[in-house]
């Protein structure tokens, strides 16, 4: 497999073409951003943790019947993925009130929802990724009604699978963001599943083990990322 020219560089990853046109080479970075890029920094070995942890989760999701873009690891910080035609939507699944939901509803962080909440956001950094609903999606032609429902259903299934893994690791899954795309006419899960895209709390102490430590200047950011990876790897080994 040969890495070719840089196709796209985002906040957390670089995506390269390969000599096999159905695949991308994804390189994870240590760069960290928050608040739509207003806060920037570095988290030591974040790229390694996010690459390795995402691979572990993708493998488990594949076993459970969720198709993902993951093909194989190429190195500690690189993975080979299927070239998806990305759907311009983020699917956010929430189990516990935190972050923007706390501010939006005026509910204290940590309140346990009676059922998972699924939200859709339009992917556009310039607009701040605004929340949308299925009517917006249909009217704007971002995805068919069937696809919009499918990615939300897949989001809930991913939630159930991840919760089953994480509870064994002593971690509570607060909320998380997913991205999806189309490959050979079928919906696949893409992007990553990591402390960058999920909120994780220690079940016993309620200590935050995710990017909120960077956003809120809580310290011990690298340690939190490493701790999640260590626990999940131990459960899945």
UniProtKB/TrEMBL annotation:
Top-level enzyme category: ligase
Coiled coil: none
Classification via Gene3D superfamilies: ATP-grasp fold, B domain, Phosphorylase Kinase, domain 1
PROSITE patterns recorded: SAICAR_SYNTHETASE_1, SAICAR_SYNTHETASE_2
Gene Ontology terms, MF aspect: ATP binding; phosphoribosylaminoimidazolesuccinocarboxamide synthase activity
Residues of the SAICAR synthetase/ADE2 N-terminal domain: 7-231
Record-listed E.C. numbers: 6.3.2.6
Top-rank taxon: Bacteria
GO annotation terms (biological process): 'de novo' IMP biosynthetic process; cobalamin biosynthetic process
Pfam families membership: SAICAR_synt (PF01259)
InterPro entries linked: SAICAR_synt/ADE2_N, SAICAR_synt_PurC, SAICAR_synth, SAICAR_synthetase, SAICAR_synthetase_CS
UniProt keyword terms in alphabetical order: ATP-binding, Ligase, Nucleotide-binding, Purine biosynthesis
Pathway assigned to this chain's UniProt record: Purine metabolism; IMP biosynthesis via de novo pathway; 5-amino-1-(5-phospho-D-ribosyl)imidazole-4-carboxamide from 5-amino-1-(5-phospho-D-ribosyl)imidazole-4-carboxylate: step 1/2
Catalytic reaction equation(s): 5-amino-1-(5-phospho-D-ribosyl)imidazole-4-carboxylate + L-aspartate + ATP = (2S)-2-[5-amino-1-(5-phospho-beta-D-ribosyl)imidazole-4-carboxamido]succinate + ADP + phosphate + 2 H(+)
Family: Belongs to the SAICAR synthetase family.
PANTHER family assigned: MULTIFUNCTIONAL PROTEIN ADE2, SI:DKEY-6E2.2
The protein's name in its UniProt record: Phosphoribosylaminoimidazole-succinocarboxamide synthase
Organism: Desulfosporosinus orientis (strain ATCC 19365 / DSM 765 / NCIMB 8382 / VKM B-1628 / Singapore I)
Gene label: purC
């Amino acid at each position: 497999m040969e890495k070719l020219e840089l196709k796209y560089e985002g906040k957390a990853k670089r995506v390269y073409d390969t000599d096999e046109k159905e695949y991308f080479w994804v390189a994870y970075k240590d760069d960290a951003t928050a608040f739509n890029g207003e806060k920037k920094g570095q988290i030591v070995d974040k790229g390694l943790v996010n690459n390795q942890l995402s691979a572990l989760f993708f493998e488990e999701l594949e076993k459970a019947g969720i198709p993902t873009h993951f093909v194989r690891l190429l190195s500690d910080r690189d993975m080979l993925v299927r070239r998806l035609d990305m759907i311009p939507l983020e699917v956010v699944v929430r189990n516990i009130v935190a972050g923007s939901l706390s501010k939006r509803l005026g509910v204290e962080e940590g309140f346990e929802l009676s059922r998972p909440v699924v939200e859709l956001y339009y992917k556009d950094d310039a607009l701040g990724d605004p929340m949308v609903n299925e009517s917006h999606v249909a009217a704007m032609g971002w995805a068919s009604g069937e696809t919009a429902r499918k990615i939300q259903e897949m989001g809930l299934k991913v939630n159930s699978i991840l919760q089953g893994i994480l509870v064994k690791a002593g971690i509570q899954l607060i909320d998380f963001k997913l991205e999806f795309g189309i490959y050979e006419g079928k919906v696949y899960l893409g992007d990553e599943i990591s402390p960058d895209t999920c909120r994780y709390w220690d079940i016993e102490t309620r200590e935050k083990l995710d990017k909120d430590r960077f956003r809120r200047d809580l310290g011990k950011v690298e340690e939190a990322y490493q701790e999640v990876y260590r626990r999940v790897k131990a459960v899945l080994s």
